[in-house]
Amino acid sequence: MLIDQTNLKYLTAKYLFSNTPMYLYQHYRRNVSLQNLAIKNKPETLAEEFKRITSKETKSLEETVTAYSILMSFTFLDYGKAFELLNSLAVSKLEWGTELKDIYNANKKVWNILRLTPVPLKFRQEQIKSQSSTNIVTLGTKPKKKEVS
Amino acid sequence: MINTKLMLCADNVIVDRFTNNASAFNILEEITPEGLPFAYPRFVVLSILEREISDPAKLECTLQIKIAEEIIIDQKVIVDFQDKLRSHSVFSIFGMPVPNYGILQASLLCEERELGHYDIKVNEPRQKKVTTANA
């Protein structure tokens, strides 16, 4: 089972209470279990399950909620991957599938996140005056050992 | 033409995974270190760029951080707009060395054109006054 019973109950309640696609989108988007669904399962596995459910003529309530959950879990993926998956699936087979996809496309922001670790500071110590020493800091060079007389 | 909608430096920038909105904490304006040089533990640059439809979706930019004309960071970065006209970038630098005092400037350059910059004043280290008790 892709979604545990506790979360499935919550998601089913939200689905039954939704009177607009935006309401469903916002509440499903805030559900951590859907975020975990995307992280813990391969997108291909989820896509297969979505296709299996939507190919049925008659779907149970649990299956419908699972299909919507899978669709919303894709919105937590990297935008390129999510876009590719949402376009490859027959989202229109769900009553609000197309609307949810459109809301995602309209609200998605593109983020570029980069982490840098600069070259650490290296210290080079040399004695300038006979009675004192001065630390000279040079970035990116190897420390030289000097004998202090 | 590419325009900068926002550029700032802060201690931390987080992106709400559910709403895709960003929040910046401890926006940097002035730093007074205890001594020089020092390493700033976490330095984050937030940049929001806007493009026109005729502009390319992927930009090869350079993130440059310098102080008193001394370049500390000169890093090539890719800013990807994908199919949107606005792109948000968060560049986190852990342990950024600051060798001197002056104006610390973080800039984003594209083909040698400056897209945006943010200045932070790094003050001279505080002079500690030592007082001795009379005998």
Folded structure, characterized:
The complex is a heterodimer of chains A (149) and B (135). Chain A is α+β, with helices and mostly antiparallel strands and 149 residues long. Chain A has helices at 5-17, 21-29, 32-40, 43-54, 61-73, 79-88, 97-107, and strands spanning 110-116, 121-129, 132-139. Chain A has a two-stranded antiparallel sheet. In chain A, a hairpin with a 2-residue loop joins β2 (121-129) and β3. In chain A, α1 (5-17) crosses α5, α3 crosses α5 and α4 (43-54) packs antiparallel against α5. Chain B has 135 residues and is mostly beta strands. Chain B has strands at residues 3-15, 22-27, 30-31, 38-50, 58-67, 70-80, 86-98, 102-110, 113-122. In chain B, strands 3-9-8-5-6 form a 5-stranded mixed sheet, with no helix packed on it. In chain B, strands 2-1-4-7 form a 4-stranded antiparallel sheet, with no helix packed on it. The mean pLDDT of chain B is 88. Classes of the chains: A alpha+beta (149), B mainly beta (135). The interface between A and B is medium-sized, with 24 and 32 residues.
For this entry, give a set of tags.
heterodimer; A: 149 residues; alpha+beta; two-stranded antiparallel ribbon; 7 helices; B: 135 residues; mainly beta; 5-stranded mixed beta sheet; 4-stranded antiparallel beta sheet; 0% helix; 64% strand
The value of Rg of chain B in angstroms is: 18 Å
**What coarse outline of chain A follows from CA principal-axis ratios?**
globular
Q: Number of DSSP strands of chain A?
A: 3
Shape of chain B: globular
Topology as H/E string of chain B? EEEEEEEEE
For the largest beta-sheet of chain B, the strand count, sense and barrel status come to: 5 strands, mixed
Helix-strand pattern of chain A: HHHHHHHEEE
**Beta content of chain B:** over 45%
Work out the helicity level of chain A. 40-55%
Beta-strand share of residues of chain A: 15-25%
- Poorly predicted runs of 5 or more residues of chain A: 126-143
Strand order of the largest sheet of chain A: 2-3
